[in-house]
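Feature request, filed as a ticket because there's no other form

It would be nice if the structure record came with a short human-readable summary line next to the tokens. Right now we just get the raw output. Example of a typical job, pasted below so the devs can see what we mean:
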Amino acid sequence: MTFSDPQNPLPPNDSSTSDSQNTASQTPESSAAPEIYLSPRNLENANAPEDIRTPWGGAELLIFFGFAVIAFIVIEFIAVSYIAAHYHFGRRQLLQFVTTNAAFAVGLQAFWSAVVLLFLFIIIRGYHDAPFWRSLHWSALRLRTVPASTVYFVCIFGGITLAMSVGFISHFAGQKTNLPIEDFFHTRSNVIWLMIFGIAFAPFFEETIFRGYLYPVFARKWGVPAGIIITGVLFGAMHAAQLWGGWVEITMLIFVGIVLTAVRAATRSVLASYLVHLSYNSFLFLGFFVGTQGLKHIPPMH
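Raw output as currently delivered:
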């Protein structure tokens, strides 16, 4: 049985009438059917809401995490080694280039993200023989009592409201320290690279991984509320290195991750959390664009 047919019922109870017919037509494949239907993963999915049913479980998550970490280390090592050899950088020059050149950082992140998505595709389509997008619950927004157009508007407006709220709190409660990510916001070309990645690619990649792949397993294992919190914490933790030293900012990003996962859980679609995420990032970059008068007055690097 494949994921495209997760709710096949158990074989009907035998009766005296059907026994003679089943015995005559039974094949080795049909006799093995009960073991397939009664597998732990299928029982787990059968008892779970449709939007958190997946053909993968905790073991696959561990493999995925391991692959993602190793892939990033290998890709970064190759990229940094190439830059050092090509430009003949010393250690200090190399460190400055890696931490301040957005084109390099974005290219590294984009390539790693593509490799991770390819690995995910191989797991879902190749190993589980399941439909890729439907398994990750990238589905249209269809709520019984609310028109689809209203849901789309609420998601987009919600992302803007979330960005305004987080920006307001971070401005007044955040620590006045130079965060690592701010080192990229001091040249026009750097900001443009970050805008392209933060709007065109990051929301899609992060929603696919966190709300599409990770959240359903956590929700099945420990319940929807715990799944929402765990996914949100992991989302914030992934960005912690960029905000290190800004504990209010890290806390706010964990909150953003929880909100995005809650939207995914409420609408049962990754598309909804993607729209919130997309409008959230877009509004933040728009605010920076307007605040620097079209990137003409970017603050100098400290």
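Something like this underneath would help us a lot:
Confidence is low (pLDDT under 50) at residues 1-39.
The two ends are 59 Å apart (CA to CA).
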